[in-house]
Amino acid sequence: MMIQHHHHRQHQQTSTTLPPHPVPLSTPAHRSPATPSNTQSQPPLSLAPLSSSSHRLPPQPPPALDHAITPIAHHSAGPAPTLARVRLSDISPYDGAPGGPYVRAVEALSGSLMRHNAAVIELGSEETPLMRCGLEAARLYFRSRSQNGVVKGGRGVYMYRAGRPVEDWDSSPPCMTEIFRCMGKAARSALCALARHLRLRSDVFNQLLDDTPLPAGEVSSSVLVATYSHSSLQNGKGAIGGGKPAANGEVEKGLLTLISSDSPVLQVCDPNGRWYLADCGSAPGDLLLITGKTLSHTTAGLHPAASYRAAPDFSLGTNSGGRTSLAFRLMPQGNAILDCSPIAAAGHVIPQSYVPISVSQFMDDLSAEEDVVCNQPNNTYVARNDMNKEPSLRSVLSDPLS
Known about the structure:
By secondary structure, the chain is an alpha+beta fold.
């Protein structure tokens, strides 16, 4: 799945304005929207007021199930698209009237997700050195444990949750607390930008999230995952650790996932079912953004979940020290309710199948459907038989001491 891409990093201005377009409609399907491999490419939504005719477009063919995990066909990878690159400073919420940079960044971010199922967030001069330090610290941590025989098979995963007591600081990579805060801020800012693009209040999804800062004694729902791979990844799995299998790829369960790595390997499936290398040319200050199934359901499919995988032909190349990645998963609270009412109130058409559901039940349903896929005879990837099996997002979400 690995494809060649030019190493010249072309800096895109976030001033690229996407043309207004009527809101794409979702037709009644299952509880959640279509998978990226089977959905039609949709243009970005417009920030302009909803027109009276935008909800009377001809019905589109029923999409495939997203809530149920379905096999994703292999497609020959073509040239990597140019993902939108938006500055974190441009999408961060602020008081006052929206300025041009904010409006353009919101359009560019949402448009890139609509066309490619991914986008890039550029950190500022203060956050970039922190991410570089975090990646290097995680690399040294895993290499040290590998030499001591703790990490076996050339692969290691560490999952950090804020608020969880750490009895032995030597047993965790350095800088996890600072990285968690940095990537959490970026993830929340991106979520606010996506809400604004849907003509919602920018804080409409805050009710799903942990309070900031966390109340005393509580453990975060969101997770920071540090992953180290010294050898080739098998079958394109385990690209960022903790994901759940979806036949030939993995799908995130939460709202958003931000990924920083020291070498390119991650492929994303676009809405047309084409796999492409999404993190090529990325620097430590670049965060690859992909969306998850929770956001897909709570937006009634307007932001479908992305499928990703490690490139099948992934090799370390010149990076003989292995590959290190940091992935921040913005997760909802287990007792929150996923409800599309704000989307309907904004004028979007909501299929009746998108009924309110608790996050815990939503995760249980996803887990049950994924178990069915894992147990299929033609599925060569069986998580429970994987020697490097990692905790599922559901277990991380439900177990405060996972």
